[in-house]
Amino acid sequence: MATRTGGGVLRLFLILVGLFWLMPTFGLLLSSLRSPEDIGASGWWKVFTEPSQLTVDSYQNLLENEAITDSLLNTVLITVPATVLVVVIGALAGYAFAWMEFPGRDWWFLAVVGLLVVPVQVALVPIAGLFGDIGIFGSVMGVVLFHVAFGLPFAIFLLRNFFAEIPRELLEAARLDGAGELRLFARVVLPLGGPAIAALGIFQFLWVWNDMLVALVFAKPENQPITVALQTQVRQFGNNIDILGPGAFISMVVPLIVFFAFQRQFVSGVMAGAVK
Description:
With 276 residues, the protein is mainly alpha-helical. The protein has two domains: 55 residues, no CATH class; 208 residues, MetI-like (MetI-like fold). 77% of the residues lie in helices and 0% in strands.
């Protein structure tokens, strides 16, 4: 009885924590559905007593603002390639470090692990100079390549450790059946590594989508993502809350949708290897 009561209290506590965590998102949603006049006059909770305040005019204004709509497209063009490339290259490299023999394998992996401690700020100036020399500074490609370069060390580290736990007997049996390394990777390793790959994809997607520092340095105004566009709107105009509210909500809700859609795989990937 005491165990059941304790479990109920814990469940209630977790529900309250979840509701408290989602409250800013819910408040931002309601604020994005109110007019600037109503936002200036009262808080978002006022809609519970005056639901007539809710309107979609702000979202119509958002769709008519080319700076915001273009930045949303730029965010997708940056986030999707940066996530896919990190997942694909990280999976291939992780498999190679886990199961393929080549000279200096352990030293190369040690170098990859060492790159995990390199802060992004240290590389901003030298890489900006490098991108300027090769002509991609300010482009979407430059932002993508920067995110890929700094996402790969963590990707390789995570997937190598996960792939190394695959039973050797399973891989040897596939090799005896005539499977080459690419077929073995595609037919055996990738299906088993699904949880870790999903967790990596979520990590990388959230990091790139929410990034502002890298885009602020490497993206020209016409290539800026939504985070930089919203910051620019605040700095230049300040009172256009009818644009900032919907834009901020869309910028926030997309990562939430991705996380909740793949939360089971995310938890499985994070917990992989924790229990033998």
